[in-house]
Each structure stands twice: as C-alpha cells, then as structure tokens.
Amino acid sequence: MGGTPHKPYPKHVWSPSGGWWAQPKQWKRNTLIVGAATTLFMAFVFKKSADLEQRTLYPRVWIPSMLWSKQFKTSDDPNFQPPKSL
C-alpha cells in the first residue's frame, strides 16, 4: 500500500509558493508568527472601532456592541431608557 513516488519535475522552475510538493522550513513557527501578528492587528482595529463608535439613534433592542461601547456605559442623554431585551 502507499502512494506512488513523486513524478519528475523541473528543478529550475521558481515559484513564490515553493513549487511542487513544498514543505518550507519552520512552517509551523512562521504560521504562529503570522497568526499572532494578525490577532494583534485585529485587536487594535477592534479597540479603535469601539472607541470611535457613536450611534445617533439608540437601538430598539439589545445589540452586542452595547457591551463595549462607551456610549452605553455612560449615557449623556437624561431621557435615555435602556432597550428591552427580547
């Protein structure tokens, strides 16, 4: 049982993805680094978005962004009534 051996391929072809049957060195470490960098970048974008979020109309029902939005933690509107959850 088992697969057949790899078919011959030209060794002079260059490819940015590594070519045929590529197994880059330290691919696990590289994947971890890119994953960590992506996570940090997305956390920064999320924080900046939450800081800048401003709603002109209050939602009629509860929405998830009410958990992290500053606007809903301290309301400047004296007539503010929190929306009823479903």
Structure description:
- By secondary structure, the chain is mainly α.
- It has a domain at 27-73.
- The mean pLDDT is 79.
- It has helices at residues 27-52, 70-73.
- It contains two helices and no strands.
- How far apart the termini lie comes to 59 Å
Rg, Cα atoms, Å = 26 Å
Low-confidence stretches: none
Tally of strands: 0
Average pLDDT: 79
Instruction: Give the helices and strands as they follow along the chain.
Output: HH
How many helices? 2
Residue fraction in strands: under 5%
Class based on secondary structure composition and strand pairing: mainly alpha
Main beta sheet strand tally, sense and closure: none
| Shape label | rod-shaped
Q: Helix amount, in percent?
A: 25-40%
Provide a short characterization of the protein structure.
The chain is built from 2 helices and no strands.
Features:
rod-shaped; single chain; 86 residues; mainly alpha; 2 helices; 0% strand
Q: Could you outline the blueprint of secondary structure elements for this entry?
A:
Blueprint: H1 27-52, H2 70-73
